[in-house]
Amino acid sequence: MGGVIVQPTCSLEEVDPTQVAVFILSGGDRWEQQPLDKELADVLTRLDDHQVPLAAICAATTAIVRAGLIRGRRHTSNGLEYLKKQVPNYTDPALYADAPAVRDRGLITASGLADVEFAQEIMAELAVLSEEGRAYWTKLFRGGRLQVGS
User: Is the dihedral of CA 18, 30, 37, 109 positive or negative?
Assistant: First the structure.
């Protein structure tokens, strides 16, 4: 959808949880138009069972819900009503957070309009930069201006 080309280095069956730092599901129309592949649901469950962080943005958040991986964790998406419409058997509205991005115990979800906040939460999960450094990075990329002398 955004012109990004992904070149897989292994099949879903070959994914080794010990070799994955974070598994990122990018957004796109595919999540709204096709059912969740059983192979992908199995890999997501296996990664989650091994405490590998899962990150989903935009419509990819529906894959997390369809795979049954909310498991008592706060989450977000493109809106609560959007999630209910896309996943009619969605049962966790009490855990839904109306926020750009949410990180809860290895699950990172974000609205399709929150790419910078999504990246910030992934960096926080992986302990990339200090908290202050991530805040600066987020302000820089969200605001589009360098802070000279800071």
Answer: positive
Say whether pTM exceeds 0.90. yes
User: Which two three-digit tokens encode residue 87?
Assistant: 């996943």
DSSP letters spanning 17-79 = GGG-S-EEE---THHHHSPPPHHHHHHHHHHHHTT--EEEEGGGHHHHHHTT--TT--B--S-
Summarised one tens digit per residue, pLDDT across range 40-98 is 999 999 999 999 999 999 999 999 999 999 999 999 999 999 999 999 999 999 999 99
* Among 57, 46, 42, residue whose Cα is nearest residue 103: 57
The catalytic residues are 58
